Amino acid sequence: MNIDTIGYNAGLVWNALNETDALGLRQIKKITKLKDKELYLALGWLARENKIAIAEGEDAKDLIISLA
Q1: 42 contacts 15 by C-beta, under 8 angstroms
Q2: Pairing state of beta strands 52-56 and 63-67?
Q3: Beta-ladder partners of 63
Q4: According to the 3-state scheme, what is the secondary structure of 19-42?
Q5: What is the pLDDT of residue 62?
Q6: pTM to 2 decimals?
Q7: Within a 10 A sphere around the Cβ of 13, how many other Cβ atoms?
Q8: CB contact at 8 A, 54 and 63
Q9: Smallest Cα–Cα separation from 44: which of 34, 58, 31, 59?
Q10: SS3 66
């Protein structure tokens, strides 16, 4: 996987989050159809650019992601 692919996937995640207030990891994965590794790399990209906020879900097993 190259940096262009990671950036593209980050755009998919950003667009999914832009449509709503916040999403869980499973929801983002379902919407974007990304594999786990692709999703985590994209989230890392967005986090590094301070574009997202990350919070624990109610069951502490899920993360809730929203745009910063």
Answers
A1: no
A2: antiparallel
A3: 56
A4: CCCEEEHHHHHHHHCCCHHHHHHH
A5: 86
A6: 0.92
A7: 25
A8: yes
A9: 34
A10: strand
Q: What residue has token string 């890392």?
A: 44
What is the SS3 assignment for 24? strand
Tens digit of each residue's pLDDT (9 = 90 or more) over 6-60: 999 999 999 999 999 999 999 999 999 999 999 999 999 999 999 999 998 887 7
Q: How far apart are CA 7 and CA 44, in angstroms?
A: 10
Residues facing 67 on adjacent strands: 52
Please name every residue paired with 23 in a beta bridge, in sequence order, or none if there are none. 65
- Which among 12, 11, 24 has a CA at the least distance from the CA of 55? 24
What totals of helices (H) and strands (E) does the chain contain, helices first? 3, 3
Beta carbons of 25 and 63 less than 8 angstroms apart: yes
